Structures are given as structure tokens and as C-alpha cells.
């Protein structure tokens, strides 16, 4: 096993993790500030991907598409926040789960209606095609590298937003004391809509970025949504830092597990059985990671309101 | 019973009785009219209602919002499929340390399903119930997803394609291949599960379970530790849903990862909600309504899911009591 | 010498830098009402939570009826005979008053792991539950949902629930809160009659009630017991006056 291969797999893991972070950040913010569990977050991811490929196709520009996907998801987020989500803040989690599950069904069917049943494809922009040389030979796709970069920039931006700006101050105040911030005269409804739209936009961005790596189709947001849940459960629900750490942990565990577990079992078992057992174990590795973290710290690695 | 005596019954009891009789009458009438499709539809209602009865125990009475009951439903289905496969092939499930073969007997399948599901539910519950609220929802969802991916990654049992059950598992008396007989089996199990739920809920166990939903502090202060009560209820709930899964696989002659998918978990939850949370017969009312609308609207348009989404949203936002709430009024307290 | 029902030995709990309870020693003897007083933030709630088992102590031991229960759960301590009421009513909100009492009785009657016979079908238990309600004068309200009881009635129900487990000792956290003068008078009389049946560790802000009821008073300030003794002694203690009574009574 070469060094280049190892580096490549590590980078794949980080790239996957960074993409999960874009999803998990929105989920965890919305939970931290509004106390809402939003299953439809995966639908916003899907919307971002669809609008990105659609706009890229008619305009011929990936970058217009990416911007369009980002804005479309933000707009859809703001829209459902005003129409549905804000009625759910005072409801119990069961109602939130059911209503946002209903939104998934609605979004999926509407997207299928509008865009048809055929998957869309999005090309990697020329600027980001090609590969970067890796030490020890071989190369790594520039586009994946760019996703890592975009994710880290977003994480930094989010940190600055929350730590340094007025909006961030209000978000933090809203997390610790919802009534207080209302009493201080902050327009809480607008704040909530803004936070929700921000989370939606990040999901849309993730969808657009991933759209060039896989086919864009209805239902693509759901596996990612559940992984994002695993991430924020591991990181501590409500903690953006936890989401970042959890994302990278999950991304690395999943990617490296799929590569190395079947090989590791070859040391113990005949080749065919090793592949089966190894890949079965790899497919559940992140859930086992979650179980271990929870057994150790039931509120996640970075518990909020400990 | 005289009309006066019937009038004296609580309205919910009447609604429940009408629901149970309607489900019994539907396939009999369908059989007379030679419409076998509706016999199978009624069987589906009975099985999915049974799955809902399981979930209702955890969710409606215990307040444990499990978003992972498809795991138990699907596991039950896979037990039926795997035992049938080995019986069909005459092969062994395992050879070491003991030789264990397949079986084509429903009673064996149900027992194995119950044990397997109980063990898995015990493990999932023991970890998930250390947390609560939104953590519990996400963790049950994640564990169900884990089992889903596990099923996909096992080529021996069909992987993504699932397993066909070529010969429906057999009953000691009666022919399970006869649609009406199979309906009666499912219906009987549904009634048994409803009866069991009713007893459990009124017994000290159920009272403690409901108190755990309302106020765990009160329960612990009374000298009853909440965790074992909730875990036991979670396991019983899972086993009921698992048996429903075994029946579902036998009804369809097929089990696949879709039985384990999180949409299935959402669907079982929808039965309970459509029927009305915290009502004994909610899963029956909900499953019947769901299946009826699905076959009615699904026959007219491809957009059934859109309709379902809008309906579910409307029920959650505006009609908390569900169907039974609509028919029988508010929940009676005791 | 009779054995203490409750004995705290060097009980401590810190939240970060804040020492909420700091090496607290305290006993509760049979037939006694021992009041725990102190200004807001003195650590009374923390101490109660440590005794009842909601909080794990950083150091020290809790002995209940001569047994070290420091690592026991809330439910296990209740099962040994520790009854308690809460500062803010904590009831099973969808049950009736009777339903709440039946729940409290069932722990003693074989626990929660009985799956078949309806709890309400047990006539003997029901009679006993009605008798408990009658003791606090709520027998006419038995079938009402808890949500429709008045504030005062809910406070009384709390006391009834604590009594229902046939406690050896009671932990009452501000039972008089929000009761009004007449309610306070009635409850004071009731508690005085109760202490032979179950000793009481009483946390209370109403000083008239405390001095009327308590056989002993301990004063908690910044997590430490600064004085402990009979009411007269506490009334005259210079340390207490300075630390506590000074700004609340004068």
C-alpha cells in the first residue's frame, strides 16, 4: 500500500466529512437556536443540487448554477420557515418530525413533477478539472480538493459570523435564552427565518457541490440527512464545533473503513469471506462509532448546556 | 346487548368495535364478490395495523418517539425470508457450533422473529434510552439505518435485491396459502395484540409507562426506576412490530431492504398519528385510512406521495386528535 | 442513642468554581422536624438533589436508615422510605389525583412489572389511595384531572404522594410556596401532626412556619452549614444574624 494511496483515502475522508459538515451545520444551528428537528434538511440539499444543475445547464456556467442552487435553497428555506416551520417551534419533537417528514414527501414529489424522473448530471467546471500531484506519485482531483477548501472556508466564515457579528451575537443569545432575546427587542421571527435560511443555503451549497460528483436525483438528500444526524449526535446537538469534529470523524471512519476493513479481514479469513464481512462491518462502522460515543458521552462530544 | 346498553358505552369503544368489525367484514364481502385483491388489501391493513400497535405502545403510551421501528419490522421479515430460504434449499443457517437449518412453519418463524427482534431491540433500546428527546429520535433512526445497510451488504440474503419466499410458511392447522385463512391469522394476531396492549396499559406496568411519558421525576420519586420500564416497553413494542414484519414478508412472498427503510419507519408512525396518538385503536384506524387512500388516490394519479404529504401536514398542524379524535372526541383521562 | 434516619457526611458538590455544597454534615433523627434555611443561592436545592439522588456528589456520603446510599438511584432511595415533595409541583399531568396516588402506592405493592391485572381494579389499593387523599382533604377531588386542580390543591396532593409511599422520612422542598396565610396555617398544623410518623427535613422560606415547626434548624450559606441547633439558639446566633437573618428579618 503506497503513501499516495493512503493520502488519497485520507483526503477522500476529509472531503466527505466537509460535505457532511455543510449539512450538519445547518441542522445543528436550527436545533440550537430554535429547538427544531428538521428532517426536510435533506430536501434542501436536493433542491440545491437540482437548481445548480438546471441553471448550469441553461446558462452554461457551473458558477452561476452553484450560486443559483445556494439562493434557491435559501429561498425555499425562508419560504417553508414562514409557511410551516414557525408553527412548529412550540410543538413537541414528534410533531416536528412528522411535519418535516411531510415536507420531504411534498418536496420530492414536486421536484419529480417539475424536473422529471430522469436524473440530471452536472459537469465539473473546467477551472477545477484535472488533478493535483500527490507526494509518492499519483494525483488527487482538483475538484475534491476545492470542496475541502470550500468547506473549511465555510466553517471559518460560520465561526466568524457566530463569534464576531451582531447576527451571531443574537444567535448565541437565542441559544441560551429564547425569552430573554425577545424581551431585548430583537425581532425574533426575522432572526429565526434568517437562521433557517442560512442553514438551508448551506445545505443547498453542499447539494450543488456534490451534484458534480454523483447523479442528481430525487431522494439523494436522504442518506446524507441521516449521516448528518449521526454527525450531530456524535458532536453534540446544537454545537457547531461538534458538527465540524463529528463530520470529519464520520467522513474518515466511513471512507477508511470501506477501504481498509475488507483488507484487514483478509489477514484473518479467506478472501471471499473477508470481503463480505469487511464490507458489512464497514457499512455499519459509523453507527458503531456513534454507539461508542453515546455509551461514553450520552450528550455527544461537545454537549450544549451541560 | 340492548340499544340502551350500547348507548351507555363510551363513544370510543363503539368506534373501535365498528372499526374491528369493518375490517373483518371487508374480506368476507370481497370473497363473496370474487374480488381477491381486496382480501389481500384487508390483510395488508391488518398487518400494518399490527406494526402500528407495536409502535403505539412505545410512542403513544410511553412517549418514546422511535423513528426506527422499520428495523424491527424488517428484521421480522428477514427472519421469515431466511428461515424459508434455508427450508426451501435444505441448507443450514449455520453449522458451527450447532447445525441450525431453516423452517417453513409459521409458529417457528414467529418465535424466532420474536427472539431475534427482542435481542436487537434490547441492544438498541439500552443505548438509545440513555438519551431522550431529539437524541432518541435521531439515534433510533440511525440504528435502523445501520441495519438497513447491513442487509444491503449481505449478498447471501439477496443484498439490495432482497429475498423471495417461494413457498409461504405453513400453519399447523389450516392452509396459509388460502388468502382468507391467512387474513384470519393476521386479523387474529392484530386482535390479540390490541387486547394485550389494553391489558398492559391498564396494568401497573402501563400506568408506570404512561407516567414515564408525562413526568419521569414523579415516577422515580414514587420509587419506580423509569429506565427498566421504558426498556421493557420498547422491547415489547419492537416484538409486536417484528411479528407484523414476518407476516408482511409472507403476505408478499418477498422481503427486501425496503422493509427496513426509514420511509417505512415514517409510515408506521403515520398510521399512529392519522389514527390519533394515545388511542388504543389508532393504528387500525390510521392503517385502514392510509391503505384506502393509497389505493384510491394511487389509482387516479402518480402523485400519491404529494397528497400524503399535504394530508399529514394538515393533520399535524390542525387536527391533533387524528381520525379517532374526530369520531370519538377527546381522550378520557383516568 | 437512637440511630439517625438520615446522615450526611461531608457532602460536597461543585459546579465549576462554584461550591454549591461544601462538606455538609447533617442528621435527621426519628420524630424530628429539621429545617434547612438559607438565603437564595445558598445551595439548598443542590443539597436536596444530592439527598434524593438526582445529583451525584463529588465527595461525602449519604446514609439513609443506616445504609450508605450514596450510589443508589432516586427510585431505590424512595423505595427505602424517602418521600419528597417538590418546590414546583411535579405530578403526572394527565392522570387524576387518584391516579397519581395509585401510582405512588404501586411501587410498594409489587412494583411496575405486573402486566395483566388493571391497577384500578384493585379495590383494596383504591381504598388505601382514597384514605391517603382524605388525609389531606382531597377525597372529593379524587377523579379530577390534576390539571384542573387549584395551585393549593396540587401542593396538598404533592404531600399526599409523599405520604403514599409510607415514608420513614420526608424531604419537603418549600411546601408552603404560594399557599397563602390560611393554607400555610393548615399545612403547618398538618406537618406538626405528621412528624411522629415520618421525620421531616424541611426547606422553607416562610420563617414563621419554620420557627413554629422546627425542632432543629441548620443554616446554609454558600454551601456550608454555618450554624445548627434549636430555634432559640439560631434566633440568637450572632453569626446567623450577620450572615442571613440580618438582611431578611430586620
From TrEMBL, chain A:
The chain crosses the membrane at residues 12-32, 39-56, 62-85, 97-115, 142-162, 190-213, 225-253, 274-296. Its main location: membrane. One of its GO terms (biological process) is amino acid transport. Signal peptide: none annotated. Coiled coil: none annotated. It is a multi-pass membrane protein. The keyword Cell membrane applies. It comes from the Bacteria. GO terms for molecular function: transmembrane transporter activity. Keywords: Amino-acid transport, Cell membrane, Membrane, Transmembrane, Transmembrane helix, Transport. It is found in: Cell membrane. The keyword Transport applies. Belongs to the binding-protein-dependent transport system permease family. LivHM subfamily. PANTHER family: ABC TRANSPORTER ATP-BINDING PROTEIN (PTHR11795:SF442), BRANCHED-CHAIN AMINO ACID TRANSPORT SYSTEM PERMEASE PROTEIN LIVH (PTHR11795). This is Branched-chain amino acid ABC transporter permease. It comes from Pelagibius litoralis.
From TrEMBL, chain B:
InterPro entries: ABC_transp_permease, LivM-like. Its main location: membrane. One of its GO terms (molecular function) is branched-chain amino acid transmembrane transporter activity. It is a multi-pass membrane protein. The chain crosses the membrane at residues 12-30, 36-58, 70-88, 108-127, 134-152, 182-209, 229-248, 268-293, 305-328. Keywords: Cell membrane, Membrane, Transmembrane, Transmembrane helix. One of its GO terms (cellular component) is plasma membrane. It is found in: Cell membrane. This is Branched-chain amino acid ABC transporter permease. It comes from Pelagibius litoralis.
From TrEMBL, chain C:
Coiled coil: none annotated. GO terms for molecular function: ATP binding; ATP hydrolysis activity. Transmembrane segments: none annotated. Keywords: ATP-binding, Nucleotide-binding, Transport. SUPFAM superfamilies: P-loop containing nucleoside triphosphate hydrolases. The keyword ATP-binding applies. It comes from the Bacteria. Residues 6-247 form the ABC transporter domain. GO terms for cellular component: plasma membrane. This is ABC transporter ATP-binding protein.
Amino acid at each position: 500500500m503506497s503513501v499516495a494511496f493512503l493520502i488519497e483515502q485520507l483526503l477522500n475522508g476529509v472531503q466527505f466529512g466537509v460535505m457532511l459538515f455543510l449539512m450538519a451545520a445547518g441542522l445543528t444551528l436550527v436545533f440550537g437556536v430554535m429547538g427544531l428537528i428538521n428532517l426536510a434538511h435533506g430536501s434542501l440539499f436536493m433542491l440545491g443540487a437540482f437548481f445548480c444543475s438546471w441553471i448550469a445547464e441553461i446558462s452554461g456556467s457551473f458558477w452561476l448554477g452553484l450560486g443559483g442552487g445556494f439562493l434557491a435553497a435559501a429561498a425555499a428555506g425562508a419560504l417553508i420557515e414562514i409557511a410551516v416551520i414557525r408553527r412548529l417551534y412550540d410543538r413537541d419533537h414528534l410533531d416536528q418530525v412528522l411535519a418535516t417528514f411531510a415536507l420531504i414527501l411534498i418536496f420530492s414529489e414536486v421536484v419529480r413533477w417539475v424536473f422529471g424522473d430522469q436524473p440530471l448530471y452536472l459537469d465539473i467546471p473546467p477551472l477545477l478539472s484535472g488533478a493535483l500531484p500527490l507526494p509518492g506519485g499519483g494525483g488527487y482531483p482538483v475538484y475534491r480538493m476545492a470542496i475541502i477548501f470550500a468547506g473549511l472556508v465555510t466553517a471559518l466564515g460560520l465561526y466568524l459570523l457566530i463569534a464576531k457579528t451582531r447576527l451571531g451575537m443574537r444567535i448565541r443569545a437565542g441559544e441560551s435564552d429564547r425569552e430573554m432575546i425577545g424581551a431585548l427587542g430583537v425581532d425574533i421571527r426575522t432572526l429565526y427565518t434568517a437562521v433557517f435560511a442560512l442553514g438551508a443555503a448551506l445545505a443547498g451549497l453542499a447539494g450543488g457541490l456534490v451534484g458534480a460528483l454523483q447523479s442528481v436525483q430525487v431522494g439523494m438528500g436522504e442518506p446524507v440527512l441521516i449521516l448528518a444526524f449521526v454527525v450531530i449526535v456524535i458532536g453534540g446537538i446544537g454545537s457547531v464545533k461538534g458538527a465540524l469534529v463529528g463530520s470529519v470523524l464520520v467522513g474518515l471512519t466511513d471512507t477508511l473503513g470501506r477501504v481498509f476493513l475488507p483488507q484487514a479481514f483478509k489477514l484473518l479469513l479467506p478472501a471471499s469471506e473477508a470481503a463480505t464481512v469487511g464490507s458489512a462491518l464497514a457499512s455499519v462502522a459509523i453507527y458503531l462509532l456513534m454507539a461508542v460515543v453515546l455509551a461514553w458521552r450520552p450528550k455527544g462530544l461537545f454537549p450544549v448546556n451541560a | 346487548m340492548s340499544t340502551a346498553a350500547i348507548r351507555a358505552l363510551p363513544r370510543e369503544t363503539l368506534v373501535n368495535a365498528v372499526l374491528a368489525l369493518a375490517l373483518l367484514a371487508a374480506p368476507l364481502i370481497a370473497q363473496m364478490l370474487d374480488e381477491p385483491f381486496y382480501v389481500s388489501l384487508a390483510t395488508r391493513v391488518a398487518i400494518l395495523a399490527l406494526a402500528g400497535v407495536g409502535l403505539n405502545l412505545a410512542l403513544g403510551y410511553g412517549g418514546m418517539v422511535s423513528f426506527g421501528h422499520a428495523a424491527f419490522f424488517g428484521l421480522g421479515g428477514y427472519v421469515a425470508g431466511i428461515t424459508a430460504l434455508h427450508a426451501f434449499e435444505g441448507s443450514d443457517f449455520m453449522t458451527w457450533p450447532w447445525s441450525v437449518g431453516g423452517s417453513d412453519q409459521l409458529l417457528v418463524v414467529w418465535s424466532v422473529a420474536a427472539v431475534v427482534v427482542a435481542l436487537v431491540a434490547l441492544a438498541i433500546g439500552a443505548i438509545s434510552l440513555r438519551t431522550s428527546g431529539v437524541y432518541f429520535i435521531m439515534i433510533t433512526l440511525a440504528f435502523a439505518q445501520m441495519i438497513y445497510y447491513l442487509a444491503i451488504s449481505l449478498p447471501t440474503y439477496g443484498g439490495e435485491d432482497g429475498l423471495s419466499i417461494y413457498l409461504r410458511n405453513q400453519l399447523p392447522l389450516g392452509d396459509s396459502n388460502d388468502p382468507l385463512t391467512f387474513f384470519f391469522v393476521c386479523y387474529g394476531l392484530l386482535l390479540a395484540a390490541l387486547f394485550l396492549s389494553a391489558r398492559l396499559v391498564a396494568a401497573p406496568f402501563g400506568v408506570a409507562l404512561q407516567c414515564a411519558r408525562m413526568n419521569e421525576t414523579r415516577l422515580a420519586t414514587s420509587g419506580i426506576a423509569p429506565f427498566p420500564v421504558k426498556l421493557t416497553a420498547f422491547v415489547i413494542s419492537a416484538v409486536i412490530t417484528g411479528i407484523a414484519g414476518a407476516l408482511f414478508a409472507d403476505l408478499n412472498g418477498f422481503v427486501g431492504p425496503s422493509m427496513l427503510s426509514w420511509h417505512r419507519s415514517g409510515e408506521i408512525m403515520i398510521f399512529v398519528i392519522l389514527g390519533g396518538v394515545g388511542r388504543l385503536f389508532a393504528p387500525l384506524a390510521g392503517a385502514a385510512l392510509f391503505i384506502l387512500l393509497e389505493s384510491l388516490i394511487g389509482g387516479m394519479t402518480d402523485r400519491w406521495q404529494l397528497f400524503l404529504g399535504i394530508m399529514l401536514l394538515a393533520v399535524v398542524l390542525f387536527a391533533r386528535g387524528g381520525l379517532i379524535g374526530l369520531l370519538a372526541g377527546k381522550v378520557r383521562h383516568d | 442513642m437512637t440511630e439517625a434516619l438520615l446522615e450526611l457526611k461531608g457532602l460536597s458538590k461543585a459546579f465549576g468554581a462554584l461550591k454549591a455544597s461544601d462538606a455538609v454534615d447533617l442528621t435527621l433523627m426519628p420524630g424530628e422536624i429539621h429545617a434547612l434555611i438559607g438565603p437564595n443561592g445558598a445551595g439548598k436545592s443542590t443539597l436536596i438533589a444530592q439527598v434524593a439522588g438526582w445529583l451525584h456528589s463529588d465527595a461525602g456520603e449519604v446514609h439513609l436508615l443506616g445504609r450508605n446510599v450514596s450510589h443508589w438511584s432516586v427510585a431505590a432511595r424512595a423505595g427505602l422510605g424517602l418521600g419528597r415533595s417538590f418546590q414546583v409541583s411535579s405530578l403526572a399531568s394527565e392522570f387524576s389525583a387518584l391516579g397519581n396516588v395509585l401510582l405512588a402506592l404501586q411501587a410498594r405493592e409489587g412494583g411496575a412489572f405486573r402486566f395483566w391485572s388493571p391497577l384500578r381494579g384493585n379495590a383494596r389499593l383504591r381504598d388505601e389511595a382514597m384514605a391517603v387523599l382524605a388525609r389531606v382533604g382531597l377525597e372529593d377531588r379524587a377523579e379530577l384531572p390534576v390539571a384542573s386542580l387549584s395551585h393549593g390543591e396540587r401542593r396538598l396532593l404533592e404531600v399526599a404522594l409523599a405520604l403514599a409511599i409510607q415514608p420513614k422520612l420526608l424531604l419537603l422542598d418549600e411546601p408552603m410556596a404560594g399557599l397563602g396565610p390560611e393554607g400555610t396555617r393548615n399545612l403547618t398544623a398538618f406537618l406538626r401532626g405528621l412528624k411522629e410518623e415520618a421525620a421531616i427535613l424541611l426547606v422553607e422560606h416562610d420563617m414563621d412556619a419554620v420557627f413554629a415547626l422546627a425542632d432543629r434548624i441548620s443554616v446554609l450559606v454558600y454551601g456550608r452549614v454555618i450554624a445548627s441547633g434549636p430555634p432559640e439558639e439560631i434566633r440568637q446566633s450572632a453569626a446567623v444574624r450577620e450572615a442571613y437573618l440580618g438582611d431578611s428579618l430586620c
